[in-house]
Amino acid sequence: MCTVCGCGTGSVEAAGGRGHDHAHDHAHEHSHDHDHDHGHAHQHDHDHVHADGTVHRHSHSHAHAHVHVHAHPHDHDHDHERLHADGVPHEHPHDHDHHHHHHHVHGPDGAFDYGAGAGSASVPGLSQARIVRIERDILAQNDAHARDNRARLASAGVFALNLVSSPGSGKTTLLVRAIQDLAGRLPVVVIEGDQQTSNDAARIRATGAPAIQINTGKGCHLDAHMVGHALEQLPLAAGGVLFVENVGNLVCPAAFDLGEAHKVVVLSVTEGEDKPL
């Protein structure tokens, strides 16, 4: 998941005018295994588009621990010349044996399986146990925020759905039609997740439903912390429905609980039947 996918600094943007700055710390850990660790915290700016068009800016230090631990063994021969008292140079070669560790399994057909092992991923120099520990820490922090979101939604009497799909599968089009069909029957609010632009939120607001756009920049999914801030800006009416349209990606969004009642996977018939299933 995000330990190795490159999901990093994200800028969550929104259309509007006024903004508010907040700082939140979630650690991005980069450890380099040369008998010492370097931890680096990276800030992520998130702008939320309010239902009225105002900009709400947050600075997040995300819990995605991108760990790049490198044990670099290289075989090097270093020649050092020493000048003796007689003025004659003598060469002394020195061998340094370094090893690169990559976790993969060779299949019977010669294929490389880098998803083998407890961590289901391969990061050079990073053990499977370390990968598992980091991912558990990331998800534990997200799950705590998700529990808060779920409690808030339950208290407000709002039913939440998290829509996930690959890019361009029709999530926004489906939402527009659903909002039109529910008009006058149920109050609907929407959180739109995308890497760039507020186009989707504009389409939703055109139906009359309040919508907040969260732009994740390089981030490949929404997380519960982002959604929690968006909930603060939405009118949550009892008996209503919250639709969360996640970033177009069938991988990482599946791992992050946002506090929803259910995830809804949207599939397009033109995608084929292999990867989505």
UniProtKB/TrEMBL annotation:
PANTHER family: HYDROGENASE MATURATION FACTOR HYPB, HYDROGENASE PROTEIN ASSEMBLY PROTEIN, NICKEL CHAPERONE. It comes from the Bacteria. SUPFAM superfamilies: P-loop containing nucleoside triphosphate hydrolases (SSF52540). GO terms for biological process: protein maturation. Keywords: GTP-binding, Hydrolase, Metal-binding, Nickel, Nucleotide-binding, Zinc. Residues 56-71 have a biased composition (Basic residues). Pfam families: cobW. One of its GO terms (molecular function) is nickel cation binding. Belongs to the SIMIBI class G3E GTPase family. HypB/HupM subfamily. Transmembrane segments: none annotated. InterPro entries: CobW/HypB/UreG_nucleotide-bd, Hyd_mat_HypB, P-loop_NTPase. Residues 18-55, 72-96 have a biased composition (Basic and acidic residues). Residues 17-123 are annotated as: Disordered. Residues 162-256 form the CobW/HypB/UreG nucleotide-binding domain. This is Hydrogenase maturation factor HypB.
